Amino acid sequence: MKKKVRLLVVLFFLAYSLAVYAASNDNNVEWDGLFHDQGPLYFYPQVPSETDNVYIRLRTFKGDITGSTIKYYDSADGNFHYVDMYWVKNDETGVFDIWEGVIPGSSSIKWYRFRITDGYKTVWMNAKGIYDNEQDFGDFWVVPGFSTPTWVHDAIFYQIFPDRFCNGDTSNDVVDGEYEYLGDPVIAKGWDEPMDGVAHEFYNGDLIGIYQKLPTYLQQELGITAIYINPIFQGPNNHKYDTQNYYLVDPHFGTNDDLAYLVERAHSTNDFEGDYRVNIVLDGVFNHTGMWHYWFDKLNWYSTLGAYESQSSEWYEYYTFNNWPDGYVSWWGIETMPKLDYSSQKLRDEIYRNSDSIIKRYLQTPYNIDGWRFDVANEIGMNGTNEGNHDIWREIRSHIKSVNPDAYMVGEYWGSAVDWLGGDQWDGAMSYYIFTNPVSKWITGKDTHNNLQSIDTQTFNDYIVQRLAEIPRQAQLAMLNSLSTHDTARFLYRADGDIWKLKLAAIFQMTFIGAPCIYYGDEIGMTGGNDPYNRWTFRWDSSEWNQDIFTLYKKLIKIRKTYPALRTGSFKPLLVDNTNKIYAFGRWDANHRIIVVLNNDFTDHTVTVDAWQLSIPNGATVTDALTGNQYTVVNGKITVSGLWGHDGVILVY
């Protein structure tokens, strides 16, 4: 009886294998069967040390190829090396062969690609795709010792613009006419008053307000695990990007003790049943200061002599003057933001080298923040330029990681950040290039600043796959994926108020590689155009919320937390349908295989996706994590009927 059962099982998988794809040694490599990425099933250890051998696995159709070789370039000797791969096993469905090769351990960075043969036919595969001819660019990275904080890989970020989130302490409020900003008296607005869009108007959100909403709203109701806060250090305007004093929390946001208390409570796990740690990341503006900073003191606010006031100032070397005093270099020519000059060793000491430097100070007791987001990070440099930028970041990284190896370093850069993400500078970047812009153009037909720029489904896939491939795996997991930020028009505004488009984008955001970051209020349907109209106050009257999108965000956050495959698993596009505007992809690890299907059309569609690509067996039942609806795998495929326009499913096996 047992023999008969075994025979039936074998025959079942054989039939399933043949029904899905018949492969053989026929001088033709079947591209649909090839797969490799650096997820835990295909690359280990995930963070190799300088002595660890790196085990690399390749998937092919069963019996399809006659051999495979890993070709890698070693930066240590400047040469290519070759490693033969050997057959390891079949997958559980019998559809695929798994091959393995080993790159010997060393401290050097390496890049690798695959040469795959079937008889006299050869194809090449790297991180960007499969080709008939060998490609010079787009290889997979091996970066020994490069690790990014695992808490970031698992995080759900929430971005807060402090003046507009919540007023928790009215005693520190800005008062009408309290002081002047560039000749204009400051304006104190009521929370619900309309915005004039000027930098000297204040709605009086503060750190205590963030604390008050932390356990009740952010943790228990929404489920976020990390907060990125826009600048909080003293400055005379509402955005604080032209700093007056790095050592002082702006008095209208609270005190330094309030910051320490906020972080302490965020790190606490005892405030309520099921409490968990929330990590805090501050915005570091170290490319420039404000002209009112005491180092510069253009307006003579301080008794000390700033660089603008005297060439004998102890801070004169912190800035670049082509012609003192008015010929100073500023950020993009904006006179209120004089640029810092990192040719000054003293400046470097004060910003990041000294044990009590500005960057280190907030990483240590009593503040203990969990990382920095660095403003215009690509522009930091010497002599009024970005000269020496990469060397400066290498220094900053070594000093930050010496204080806290798990501190998050995320740089602001709108293009390809590959030059900063090789393991020796940033952990990740704000993912405008890989995530934010492609998603916006595909779903809304506009770029992040609301300009008409539409891309089709194929272009969308090409953008995210090829751009993701440019950077190492550890950096991919540490990219900050936002739909909106303080520097973009809100997503719902770009979508012309179509909440379904925001829903579709949120589904992709919570299932894609990288750390999702919600810009405050997106989750309740807030809208607004480009800066400053993307910075309206949070609407705390829940009757004003779009409850459908809020419910969806809560559900998506819970789903992402439940399935590690959505955070650190493999990623593979499964369907790119330009005609019907359908995009489907897989995320999987050893425990779960998940298929995400997105319908970017205005009309409903029936969609069929290849489940066999994720080794989901014939007859298996998968469940949509969003609705609970179930689907059965038939002939290696899953069919979703009547998928609504601008909606999606998350099918879990």
From TrEMBL:
Residues 159-560 form the Glycosyl hydrolase family 13 catalytic domain. Belongs to the glycosyl hydrolase 13 family. The lineage of its organism: Bacteria, Bacillati, Bacillota, Clostridia, Halanaerobiales. The keyword Membrane does not apply. Keywords: Glycosidase, Hydrolase, Signal. GO terms for biological process: carbohydrate metabolic process. This is Glycosyl hydrolase family 13 catalytic domain-containing protein. Residues 1-22 form the signal peptide. One of its GO terms (molecular function) is hydrolase activity, hydrolyzing O-glycosyl compounds.
